[in-house]
């Protein structure tokens, strides 16, 4: 019997599993594939919009939650975790992966240029994006300020990054503190592998893991950059070697930053690989490619998760269970053609907003996305009708939680880590108390 | 428009007999007669449907692309998403993407796909179609694992000598297409059958040793003829724990033929084997120290080749990989842990065939029950050999590139021993690192004091 079975290896599942394991518990982490972390931008969004752009997410949290409470009958996950768990969650994640992977401050957002030349708020970011930081805090100027010159550099062999579009839009943005950037576009050529004319970002990143390959890129960048300019490149500057970016930047000798690109995006993958490795080295037992099909329960207590191992189902016994299996995007929540929403793994009752779930307009929030499981402040899953725990030892974290509009709010990662830490700490204290 | 959609308005009988359907003919038979995709298709309809329907679940997230060990090292292969769910839409008999042949069928893509797309399975089936009428002689030969074992065992010293001679290997490469440097099994003078026949029987029962009743041991071809030591040690560990080990007469599971697209003969073999294993007892747990053969029986026969046979289903649900079985005992509090201490770092590679059984990596936890052992996981997706893939002369370089990081890690961290659960992967790791590479049961055998961990040298 394990102490805890965690279902899902996205950001929330990985962080919770590591924290539980570091507290000395035995943990089985079962997942049917990689999570959204790998597809993300390698940044940690805590709260980006409410709906106006947020500069100090934790200071503005109470107001955000009050507005949210007026607009919806479903409590936001942050109403359960509170600001302290957000602070601790983000701090814990950043400390786990280290400064080669994440830098920033949960108290203050910064804005980062995107692959269409917009500015996107976030709290933590990889050090390779630091030279692109635009401050949202008037007291602290960022790396880029009014009048800063940026050269956005495309790689001919890489199709998902168009410097003219990015530079054009970047130059049109009014900066939060007033003024604009100056931006121009340029190109280099870097075939990731011999004769390859259409390379994925990952292949380019893998090529740049090899120090011997970097020179070719460095020479072209040095030739095109003008004095005082900051270079912006697609986020493909090294995959496994965390020093690749710093080395490239030092060799070129100009400020330089990465802009995240569509999947396969490398920054998300770097974080995912790093966390997976930490989990395995801590001896979290990782069951990859294993669907959780259901669970055995008795007397309001979950006893075993049913894992679809090949040949025979495995009934994996544990004392506590954490559902961290994501939302609609990972198939844990499903909408059928009768507009009925269900939770597909354990068949849990869901918190569903009243009224129409999908507006037939692209603008604005879709109520459907706030559907999810309801919890109490310990992240124990409750029936929204009664507020009573569904099972006394079932917790939930991350994208499966009800009440958030993660994409609109830019709150997905913050919710994932805050709820993971909150749930893990509740499990740790409950398992220590008496049952052992 | 509306009455076109409203099918309820048309009573079924007015539809009349279906056009073209001969009396007694099923729709499937009719389709098979007219559709190039279904006609002469080596795949069964069921397996095709099972895997094909999954392609619609693909959200193009590219996670499979990032994990594929072959696409990582060569531009010759266009990658799992393209060759799998994308190309499959356009396959109607003919193959639309010939780089498909570079897929090693390691299954890493399927494992990492968060949307349950059966990418590797789709590829395996498409390859069977693509190679149907021009299967190289080599692919037919190297899949005859049982025959090879039977032929080589009586001549073990000669065979081993011959396989080490460069001129002979060059000739083999030219004529058969097996790369001159590819790993080869070491032929043994005695098969497991010979050992069972000549040994004195299980060690006498020790005082206090429980009687845990019978289990069936499935040796697999490699375990019968080449990795005989693994089979012996599994039998001895199980007997040490108090099991009675039954080893019925048994043939090959057909995995090598399956992975080369020779489905018809592979299907016959796996069914026959399961009938043989069933003959030893229909309720007993079947244990295998061959991770890949266990995977074939547990799921690949069904998922890739559409085998729906009661004997295979029965054995498949009762089959346990050795480490899985021992760890289950441990979790039930029934595994004696009076291990002697073995102070060593052991690099361990979980082969794809074990990863894809959805049971995690039981070997790591099992070996770390032994005091002093610290396992270093390879963290690599594949060793490159993928059954018979890395033997082929046109794939050899790709396979070596796939395994490179793994080989370096094994060389860097080993203290005389590396561990991996499947035979061909062990040959690959041994061949490319020079490090003695063994099944996890080898370590457990030593920890119970039944042998020295370094003996015999393999
Ligand atoms: C493409 C993309 C871009 C995003 N960009 C942003 C952004 O810019 N800002 C932001 O705030 N948020 C963003 N998000 C959302 C953010 O990534 C998620 O909110 C957050 O990572 C949620 O993580 P999670 O751990 O809850 O779930 P997920 O990352 O979805 O992981 C779910 C895990 O559960 C597993 N699983 C599911 N079902 C089962 C089952 N039956 N059995 C076993 N395992 C199962 C999956 O395999 C997976 O491992 C993005 C998400 C995606 C997909
Ligand atoms: S991982 Fe699955 S869903 Fe994603 S691109 Fe590959 S097949 Fe499609
Ligand atoms: S089976 Fe292996 S080699 Fe083939 S596409 Fe999938 S990951 Fe790549
Ligand atoms: S390690 Fe694998 S992936 Fe590689 S061939 Fe061996 S069993 Fe498969």
From TrEMBL, chain A:
This is Glycerol-3-phosphate dehydrogenase subunit GlpB. It comes from Tessaracoccus lacteus. It is an enzyme of class 1 (oxidoreductase). Residues 3-414 form the FAD-dependent oxidoreductase 2 FAD-binding domain. It comes from the Bacteria. One of its GO terms (molecular function) is glycerol-3-phosphate dehydrogenase (quinone) activity. Keywords: Flavoprotein, FMN, Oxidoreductase. Its EC number is 1.1.5.3.
Automatic annotation (TrEMBL), chain B:
One of its GO terms (molecular function) is glycerol-3-phosphate dehydrogenase (quinone) activity. Residues 1-21, 191-212 are annotated as: Disordered. Residues 49-78, 92-123 form the 4Fe-4S ferredoxin-type domain. InterPro entries: 4Fe4S_Fe-S-bd, 4Fe4S_Fe_S_CS, Cys_rich_dom, G3P_DH_GlpC_su, Helical_ferredxn. The keyword Chaperone does not apply. It holds the Pfam family Fer4_8. This is Anaerobic glycerol-3-phosphate dehydrogenase subunit C. It comes from Tessaracoccus lacteus.
């Amino acid at each position: 019997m394990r102490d805890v079975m965690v279902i899902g290896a996205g950001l929330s599942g990985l962080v919770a599993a590591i924290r539980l394991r570091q507290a000395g518990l035995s943990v089985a982490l079962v997942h049917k594939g990689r999570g959204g972390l790998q597809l993300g931008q390698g940044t940690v969004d805590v709260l980006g919009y409410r709906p106006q752009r947020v500069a100090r997410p934790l200071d503005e949290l109470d107001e955000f939650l009050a507005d949210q409470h007026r607009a919806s009958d479903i409590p936001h996950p942050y109403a359960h975790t509170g600001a302290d768990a957000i602070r601790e969650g983000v701090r814990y994640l950043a400390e786990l992966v280290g400064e080669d992977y994440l830098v920033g401050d949960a108290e203050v957002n910064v804005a980062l240029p995107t692959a269409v030349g917009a500015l996107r708020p976030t709290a933590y970011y990889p050090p390779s994006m630091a030279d692109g930081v635009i401050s949202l805090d008037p007291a602290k100027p960022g790396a880029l300020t009014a009048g800063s010159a940026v050269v956005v550099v495309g790689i001919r062999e890489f199709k998902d990054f168009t410097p003219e579009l990015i530079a054009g839009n970047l130059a049109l943005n009014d900066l939060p503190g007033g003024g604009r950037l100056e931006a121009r576009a340029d190109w280099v050529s870097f075939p990731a592998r011999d004769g390859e004319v259409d390379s994925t970002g990952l292949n380019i990143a893998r090529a740049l893991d090899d120090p011997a390959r970097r020179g070719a890129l460095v020479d072209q960048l040095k030739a095109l950059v003008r004095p005082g300019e900051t270079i912006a490149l697609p986020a493909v500057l090294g995959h496994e070697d965390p020093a690749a970016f710093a080395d490239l930047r030092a060799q070129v000798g100009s400020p330089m930053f990465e802009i995240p690109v569509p999947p396969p995006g490398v920054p998300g993958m770097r974080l995912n690989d790093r966390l997976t490795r930490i989990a395995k080295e801590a001896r979290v037992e990782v069951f990859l490619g294993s669907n959780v099909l259901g669970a055995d329960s008795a007397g309001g207590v979950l006893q075993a998760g049913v894992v679809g191992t090949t040949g025979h189902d495995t009934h994996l016994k544990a004392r506590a269970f954490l559902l961290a299996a994501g939302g609609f995007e990972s198939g844990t929540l499903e909408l059928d053609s009768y507009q009925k929403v269900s939770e597909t793994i354990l068949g849990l009752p869901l918190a569903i907003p009243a009224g129409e779930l999908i507006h037939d307009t692209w603008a604005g929030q879709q109520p459907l996305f706030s559907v999810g499981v309801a919890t109490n402040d310990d992240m124990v899953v409750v029936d929204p009708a009664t507020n009573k725990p569904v099972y006394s030892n079932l917790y939930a974290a991350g994208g499966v939680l009800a009440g958030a509009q993660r994409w609109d709010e830019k709150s997905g990662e913050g919710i994932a880590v805050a709820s993971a830490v909150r749930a893990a700490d509740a499990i740790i204290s409950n398992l220590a108390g008496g049952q052992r | 428009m509306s009455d076109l959609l409203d099918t309820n308005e048309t009573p079924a009988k007015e539809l009349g007999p279906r056009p073209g359907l001969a009396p007694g003919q099923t729709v499937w038979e009719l389709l098979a007669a007219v559709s190039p995709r279904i006609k002469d298709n080596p795949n069964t309809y069921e397996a095709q449907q099972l895997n094909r329907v999954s392609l619609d679940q693909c959200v193009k997230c590219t996670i499979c692309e990032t994990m594929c060990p072959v696409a990582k090292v060569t531009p010759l292969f266009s990658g799992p998403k393209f060759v799998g769910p994308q190309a499959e839409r356009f396959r109607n008999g003919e193959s639309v993407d010939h780089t498909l042949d570079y897929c090693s069928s390691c299954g890493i893509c399927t494992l990492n796909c968060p949307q349950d797309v059966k990418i590797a399975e789709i590829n395996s089936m498409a390859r069977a179609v693509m190679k149907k009428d021009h299967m190289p002689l080599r692919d037919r030969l190297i899949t005859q694992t049982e025959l090879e074992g039977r032929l080589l065992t009586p001549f073990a010293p000669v065979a081993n000598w011959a396989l080490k001679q460069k001129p002979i290997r060059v000739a083999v490469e030219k004529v058969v297409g097996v790369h001159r440097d590819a790993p080869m099994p070491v032929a043994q003078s005695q098969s497991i059958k010979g050992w069972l026949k000549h040994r004195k029987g299980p060690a006498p029962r020790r005082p206090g040793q429980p009687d845990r009743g019978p289990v069936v041991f499935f040796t697999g071809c490699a375990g019968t003829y080449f990795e005989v030591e693994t089979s012996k040690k599994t039998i001895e560990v199980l007997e040490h724990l108090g099991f009675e080990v039954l080893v019925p007469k048994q043939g090959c599971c057909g995995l090598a033929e399956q992975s080369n697209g020779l489905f018809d003969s592979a299907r016959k073999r796996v069914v026959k084997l399961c009938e043989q294993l069933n003959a030893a007892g229909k309720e007993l747990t079947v244990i295998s120290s061959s991770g890949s053969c266990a995977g074939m029986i547990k799921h690949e026969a069904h998922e890739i080749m559409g085998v729906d046979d009661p004997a295979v289903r029965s054995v498949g649900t009762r089959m346990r990989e050795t480490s899985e079985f021992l760890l289950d005992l441990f979790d039930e509090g029934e595994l004696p842990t009076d291990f002697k201490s073995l102070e060593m770092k052991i690099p361990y590679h979980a082969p794809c065939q074990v990863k894809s059984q959805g049971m995690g990596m039981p070997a790591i936890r099992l070996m770390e029950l032994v005091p002093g052992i610290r396992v270093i996981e390879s963290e690599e997706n594949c060793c490159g050999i993928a059954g018979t893939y890395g033997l082929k002369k046109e794939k050899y370089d790709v396979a070596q590139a796939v395994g490179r990081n793994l080989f370096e890690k094994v060389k860097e961290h080993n203290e005389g021993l590396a561990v991996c659960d499947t035979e061909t992967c062990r040959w690959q790791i041994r061949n490319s690192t020079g490090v003695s590479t063994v099944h996890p049961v080898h370590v457990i055998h030593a920890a119970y004091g039944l042998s020295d961990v370094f003996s015999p040298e393999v």
